[in-house]
Fold this protein.
Amino acid sequence: MRHTISVLVENKFGVLTRIAGLFSGRGFNIDTLNVAPTHEDNASRMTIVTQGDDATLIQIVRQLNKLPEVLEVQDFREHLYVDRELVMIRVKTDSKSRSEIMQITDIFRAKIIDVHPESVTIEITGAEGKIAKFIDLMETFGIETLTRTGTVALPRA
Amino acid sequence: MSETKVKDPRTDNRSSSNDKSEIGPTMSGSDILVAALERENVDTIFAYPGGASMELHQALTRSDKIRVILPRHEQGGAFAAEGYARASGRPGVCMATSGPGATNLVTGIADAFMDSIPMVAITGQVPQAMIGKGAFQETDFFGMTLPIVKHSFLITDIADIPRVVKEAFHIATTGRPGPVIIDLPKNIQQAKAQPVFPKSVHIRGYNPVKHASDLALNEIVGLIEKSERPVLYVGGGIISGNAHEELRELVRLTGIPVTSTIMGCGALSETDPLSLRWLGMHGAAFANWAVSGEFKKEIDSEGQVRVTEIHPGADLLLAFGVRFDDRVTGKVDKFCEKGTIVHVDIDESEHNKNRKVQLPVVSDVKYALGRLVEMFKKRPIQAKFDAWHRRIVDWKERGAFRYSVNEEVMRSQHMRDHLQGMEDQVILPQMAIDMLYELTQGEAIVTTGVGQHQMWAGQYYKSPEPRRLLTSAGLGAMGFGYPAALGAKVACPDRQVVDIDGDGSFLMNIQELATAHIEKIAAKAIVLNNQHLGMVVQWEDRFYKGNRGNTYLGDPDNMEAIYPDYVAMAKGFNVPCERVMFRKDLKAAIQRMLDSDQPYVLDVIVPYTEHVLPFIPAAHTVADMIIS
């Protein structure tokens, strides 16, 4: 089962390794991982998307809670949260395809952030389904390169 | 371009909040560390110096509060620190230099982690400018130890030393205890600063205080009142949580029988009529029956295995401060299969980890047991467990630990090689422990190595009190026994401390005889020498048709001699040692060992044919228990 785990941590060196170790030590792969500071001094939020059986994930969440540098753990399983991802994608273009790419970009409320004679770079944010669809469409033009932030999530208020 | 690191002000939000901090005079980083250790009331440190830690040793020579004991191998130092902690309940402290010194501590740290022993391990690190350069004796100790520590610190600023030390001891000793490491680069040891010693600790993400709600505890009371066959299953948490008095009071008030893990031995005196001793793979048959039931296993004429229950086990299992280790449970879903299981532990991650339980309760066990005692004092228990007590009396008679000189011993190579014409004088390993128990009246602290002798020590040396059987239970680290005995003797100098060891385990840290002699630590050792790795031999006999795969420790070219010659080796260390071959000599030899005010080794020659019984093979059930 797929889990999105949000971990608020103290911003200290070694925290990422400690947390990653709890996954790797149990043979779990991390699908996506995002880490960045929050509005709080000295705190960062990690969003981890991983798959695995529930018992092991409960175990990981409890182990996360035991780490002195971990301030808070939330395991979003019940869809009671909003999640987004930002993707930057460079697509091959020529004078013929450029306008079609721009149209699709508009439809998806994405943004072109860089233009070259032979490529455009597009920024898109959204939930998983929308992004997957957009990437599918862009593949028909030819994707040169792509980078994504991984999921970030917050519980619904 | 040179890199300059600006200290992030956000990482330093604590020191200002400690308004009652104490400011010391300007001194070196190593002196600050020692001063911080003194403030944690450290009286002993097991430390082996090297290039990256000699500054710390220099500072320790200036301390009149801390005794530095030089082990002869860093692993010995780590195990000694554990022995000190296990015997006293105070945190054990060990120290080593960077690189190989640090890696040699790793086994001891892993051991402390598995058995939840409070320990602070300090290592020197190469100067910060050398970190990551593959410097001489450099290892990433912080990274290497991540999976086996409760917490770790790499100090990068001299101003952090006092706070880090305070936090390290706080984390190591509170909640579920465990090892904490402090890695300190040499340039910081040599730098100078004015230390600020905080008076209190505040760690945002760490709250070790957990108390069960009265609601949950009342539910436990209700389950006890409804039960007919309750059993308390208690572990190391009772010992580290200092909860044995509360446990004993609860047992007095309710009459619930108690089994323990090997980590929990002595929580209730093992001579108490309600003690079921310890359970598991080599635990008491009656303990395993009481938890999971007594079964008869038959193979009928068609080769079908039929298991029938003779007597049911517990209908309520009250698990306090335990972790349902596989050596305790065997096949885990068959463990107390028909009973309701309550699991009280301070560490929530232990709940439903190995065994699904009906009522998990997060709590300090001392608090939970104390509160249950209050509840039963207010409303005395109505339930009567007379029939259950009678069942247990019968089980204890039928399942008592026993041994005898059997045919296999008489026919063994051991007899031909060592006891020709003196066969009636053979010493079984169990006999030696029995004799030690009798001569010390159960009042010694016993440490062990790992293997058959460890199990027999647990079976035949009954713990009357907590912290009397010190053993590497979770990690099962051979070589633990003698250095742990040194640590225990340092912590409890007035108590007899005896390492009951095997020849394989003893040899792994035999260099610590030098520590014992030079430091005048009168820890004793009985080596049950069967010239084999007995536990592996036992498994070879049971599961590999007796084929020997590197389990013989003697000299194959001269099997009649005992090899190595421990008496000669001990002489080299200036430690008295006797070899005992014959039963007639055993009692007097043990008495001489006990009477000695020095370290002393008895090399007791025993046959390799004995198997530890009872025996529930790994991942099997109590129905598969081999009793004889």
Summary: The CA atoms of residues 398 and 452 of chain B lie 23 Å apart.
